[in-house]
User: What shape does this take?
Amino acid sequence: MEPASLSTPEAVVDRLEALHGQSTAALRSALERALSGGPPPDAVERARFRYPELRLRYAPGVAPGLAAGTDPANRRAWARFEAPGLYATTVTQPGFFRPYLLEQLRPLMAEFGATAEVATSTQEIPYPYVLDRAGTWDAGDGTAAMLARHFPTPSLAAVGDEVADGEWRHDPDAALPLSLFDGPRVDYSLRRIVHYTGADWRAMQPWILLTNYHRYVDQFIRWAVAQLGQAGTPWSALVLPGGVRIGRDDLAQADAMIASSPWHRFQMPAYHLLRDDDAGVSLVNIGVGPSNAKNVTDHLAVLRPHCWLMVGHCAGLRSSQAIGDYALAHGYLRRDRILDDLVPPEVPVPALAEIQVALQEAAARVTGERGEALKRRLRTGTVVTYDDRNWELRWSRERRAINLSRAIAVDMESGTLAAQGYRFRVPYGTLLCVSDRPLHGEIKLPGAASAFYERAVGQHLMIGLEAVEILRGDLAALHSRKLRSFDEPPFR
Assistant: This one.
């Protein structure tokens, strides 16, 4: 199909939606026919199962009011061109991503004078990505093999993070990348989100809290149901693992609906409190360890969230800390090893001032303490992230590195989550709560842990939620230049 030149961002997204809808409808129709015993698609029909491609062409000095050869002067971190040329990416689910696409396209077309084209690409849409749910046929009767012969299947060769990791090599005859993730990469992660978290990926909200203990989930659910019951609330529904949806009119049976959620079936169950303005908050229980932390954020990143914040437990390392105190990470000693090839340990992962300020202010608001009183409860410093839960058994070998880092806390996720945020340009932050002090004789014991949970978990979670409310007010500052590379794609 010949590319269509389009003059407005709205027309661009409309065209993307139309082409994607035609492609997925054709693929579904062919699948239904083949699964009903009909003929499989031929090469001509299969050519219809392709992603739409968005192309932007930029030349300096073409925007209204600019001298020839000059660039618009702005300090925005996103929706900007680093160099003239043709930029392109394939797009999936343009209806869902419409607000994001318009946010990027409007300044690129208005301020930079970029011209836009939409056409059908050469990238095929894998057939599993148009199925509503997995397991809709009996794979044991040869059906899966038949589908793999005649329909596009997921290919690892077509899915990668070369752009995000700075590993792509520009072909002078090809377009520059318009975004960090193309259609196949996004579709791959959307299905992984469903698999791991237990809910439709569309329920995931742009403000994400990550935790490593289920007790935070209980508190989040109680708080969310209370929000739905308030008069004039902006919150519209709570979505639980398994697709259980509690709306404003369902509060009388909320307890039964909560109990019916099959959260235990999913490795990293997620809970979503939706808002009328589509700017709600999600809580994901990622469990313990850097592998889970990397896994979930590999996939959440394609949704381009506003931020992810870690609110979990840690071991306090200083004698001045008490169980229930807070540790606000301003640096990370990354001993998790899982990202060493992608973000080497010598690469600094900076604290983001906007998030640091929001978390500290949120702590002050929730605890009612400021100044010296807050400092007694909240300490700022380096967090060590290990891949070994029993790091204490190597204390004689780890002591010097921890001492040199001036660390105040140890966990198994925060450094990984921060490095992933840095890698994928998603703002990140960490506020941990001290649950044990192994260097000072207070190790985790069943009775002590339960008393700690009851006293501290609720307040800790509320600090994370309050920080989200603070950050809502200044998105332009949140999406700052700190995370951008010198050859950054135009799209955030």
User: Anything to note?
Assistant: The chain has two domains: 4-192, 286-483. The two ends are 28 Å apart (CA to CA). The mean pLDDT is 91.
